[in-house]
């Protein structure tokens, strides 16, 4: 089941499992009155956006640099034709659905579909539609039938299944063209999909209003998105209690980052050792980074340093006062001398 809001289609990404590549699209048509483009399209390869289009653009935009290659150009021409055809499909679907419900005002019609290819050759394809952000109808690629998610979608099912030409085009797309395009993209856009090894940094900080210590395991620069990060105690115990996990976030260079924070009490810090363990498809084996607690500052040393600094400041102040006093005395002496010389000259 899908749940898509008006803008959710631009944000939702289906993350393929390790050893799987996917080619996906997300389209949305809106009726009058939103101030948005009537049609918006986003194409994704795995979790990387490779194209986008909206109704006010002259043509779709390809967001990678491999299109100059012969097969790349062929792929792009095929995808461009599909994007423009999908615009016609969504506009047709929105118009007919609004008429069927006798609706007025602003409404949306969305679709998302694509195909997945496993390393072992297994294939999967899907196509789902939504009306006003709710499941509406989907296409079963295996049985070549439309499945209504709600009773109100049965009319749409009959319309689409009665159109033999559209049915054949849809079948060709999800049985052949999508996988062919995916294979081409994997071959000619491989630099975009190259696996990247994560970098791991451990950062220590004191917990506010507590004697405990937070240790941040910051993992960044990895691709693809799927990663497993865990805190390990004494080299074997996987920790869940006292561990906070952030979300996997994108970097500007199409890699990803993740933070996992471990809170350690002073007692546990003395009794146990801790390491951050990272498992990623770019690694031959799991990466373990051991946490070495930063030594506490010696308070006597700190105090001595503070006293030395205060002593230096006091010395500077005293020196300035002495300099000012001497300068004042010199000015008075010079003034007295000048006065004496003036008196002698008058005589």
Automatic annotation (TrEMBL):
The answer to whether UniProt assigns keyword Glycoprotein to this entry is yes
Q: Which terms are listed as keywords in the entry?
A: Glycoprotein, Immunoglobulin domain, Membrane, Signal, Transmembrane, Transmembrane helix
Which stretches are transmembrane? 299-323
Q: Does the keyword Signal apply?
A: yes
Q: Where's the Ig-like domain?
A: 198-290
Q: Name one GO cellular component term.
A: extracellular space
Q: Which GO terms describe its biological process?
A: immune response
What PROSITE patterns is this protein classified in? IG_LIKE (PS50835), IG_MHC (PS00290)
Q: Quick one: signal sequence residues?
A: 1-18
What InterPro entries does this protein map onto? Answer: Ig-like_dom (IPR007110), Ig-like_dom_sf (IPR036179), Ig-like_fold (IPR013783), Ig/MHC_CS (IPR003006), Ig_C1-set (IPR003597), MHC_class-I_related (IPR050208), MHC_I-like_Ag-recog (IPR011161), MHC_I-like_Ag-recog_sf (IPR037055)
Q: Which Pfam families match?
A: C1-set, MHC_I
Family classification: Belongs to the MHC class I family.
What is the recorded name of this protein?
Major histocompatibility complex class I-related gene protein-like isoform X2
Q: Which organism is it from?
A: Acipenser oxyrinchus oxyrinchus
Organism lineage string: Eukaryota, Metazoa, Chordata, Craniata, Vertebrata
């Amino acid at each position: 089941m899908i749940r898509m809001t008006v803008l959710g289609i631009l944000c939702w990404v289906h993350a393929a499992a390790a050893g799987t590549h996917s080619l996906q699209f997300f389209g949305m048509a809106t009726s009058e009155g939103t101030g948005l483009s009537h049609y918006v399209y986003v194409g994704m390869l795995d979790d990387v956006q490779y194209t986008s289009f909206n109704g006010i653009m002259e043509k779709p935009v390809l967001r990678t640099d491999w299109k100059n290659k012969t097969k790349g150009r062929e792929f792009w021409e095929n995808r461009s034709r599909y994007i423009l055809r999908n615009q016609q499909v969504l506009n047709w679907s929105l118009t007919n659905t609004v008429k069927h419900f006798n609706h007025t005002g602003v409404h949306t019609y969305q679709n998302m579909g694509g195909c997945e290819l496993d390393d072992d050759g297994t294939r999967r394809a899907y196509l789902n539609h939504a009306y006003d952000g709710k499941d509406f109808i989907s296409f079963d690629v295996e049985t070549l039938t439309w499945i209504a998610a709600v009773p109100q979608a049965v009319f749409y099912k009959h319309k689409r299944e009665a159109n033999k030409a559209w049915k054949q085009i849809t079948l060709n797309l999800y049985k052949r063209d999508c996988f062919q395009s995916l294979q081409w993209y994997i071959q000619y856009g491989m630099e975009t999909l190259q696996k990247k090894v994560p970098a791991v940094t451990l950062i220590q900080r004191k917990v506010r209003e507590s004697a405990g210590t937070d240790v941040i395991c910051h993992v960044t620069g990895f691709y693809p998105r799927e990663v497993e990060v865990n805190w390990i105690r004494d080299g074997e115990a996987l920790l869940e209690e006292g561990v906070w996990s952030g979300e996997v976030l994108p970097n500007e260079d199409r890699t990803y980052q993740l933070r996992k924070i471990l809170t350690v009490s002073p007692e546990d810090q003395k009794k146990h050792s801790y390491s951050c363990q990272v498992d990623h498809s770019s690694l031959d084996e799991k990466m373990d980074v051991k946490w070495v607690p930063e030594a506490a500052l010696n308070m006597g040393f700190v105090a001595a340093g503070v006293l030395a600094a205060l002593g230096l400041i006091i010395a500077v102040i005293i020196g300035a006062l002495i300099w000012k006093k001497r300068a004042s005395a010199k000015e008075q002496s010079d003034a007295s001398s000048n006065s004496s010389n003036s008196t002698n000259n008058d005589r």
